[in-house]
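Recap from last week: sequence in, structure out.
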Amino acid sequence: MGFFNSEIVQDELDEITRLQDLIYGEIQKFPSMSTSEKLNHIELLEELLEKQEILYARLSLSDDPAAKQTKENIERYASMMGIPTDMKMNSIFDNVRIVIKNMKEYLNNI
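Predicted structure tokens:
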């Protein structure tokens, strides 16, 4: 069975897509959201990050050629967005997690 034929992987991909659609669909409203709405939005970002990190780990552990290609595509896209090619994805996930934590702390203190 191929990596992407797994029901678990398909469910995760569906959930990642759902979260991305929800988050990106509301991003323009973020400045006018209430503090609680902003916190909810950030919690969705946190959930998305966690799911993306798990999927990336699974891609990294897989021997499936499609999984390897997808992992390489993710790394190529990160490079195209200005992420240094020698920076590990785990560091990127950690940095995003710090930004999310700081956003939550800021909103909790206003």
